[in-house]
Specification:
The structure holds two protein chains of two kinds. By secondary structure, chain A is mainly beta. Chain A has strands at 4-6, 10-14, 19-21, 23-25, 31-38, 45-50, 56-58, 64-68, 73-78, 87-95, 102-103, 107-112. Chain B is built from no helices and ten strands. The chains are: A mainly beta, B mainly beta.
Amino acid sequence: AQSVSQHNHHVILSEAASLELGCNYSYGGTVNLFWYVQYPGQHLQLLLKYFSGDPLVKGIKGFEAEFIKSKFSFNLRKPSVQWSDTAEYFCAVKGGSQGNLIFGKGTKLSVKP
Amino acid sequence: GAGVSQSPSNKVTEKGKDVELRCDPISGHTALYWYRQRLGQGLEFLIYFQGNSAPDKSGLPSDRFSAERTGESVSTLTIQRTQQEDSAVYLCASSFAEQFFGPGTRLTVL
């Protein structure tokens, strides 16, 4: 069965620090990859997605992610975090003929002002 | 509408009661998904509707769970004889290419 692993449960950073959240998936075929964000009290929003093409994907709010097929990874990065980035971040994969997304357990990011 | 809507936003029920949760997808989205998010966990897939095809029910945790969707419109998720472990946020998403999520229904079973 497909699975998604997010390595960090809770990350605490100071403002202006750089961020990298790890995501690895298990499916060996063609995949669509996503990062969703859930701000406190709000619903899930799409941050960025990879379907094909350039493996470095730019998303909203200065986030980016790099698809490395050989490592089955899709890590999320931001060069300089802000307090407003405090949220929970979910990596998800959609592979093959499946319709639904498989989600990781999420990483909670706390940014100290 | 502008986004996926779900109702009710919160539901508190007693163990053993049936509950019905509603999802209004984005107009024109052919696919509709239900997920469950338990405290401290990621999203768990429940069921997937694609157009008029038979739904993918592979994620439903027990036969107490069922869902319906008429055409490409509203969907209802029904949980019969609720148990305390059913307490979670139930999320609906609709999709044409990428999935857009609703705000969820927080279900608490006492």
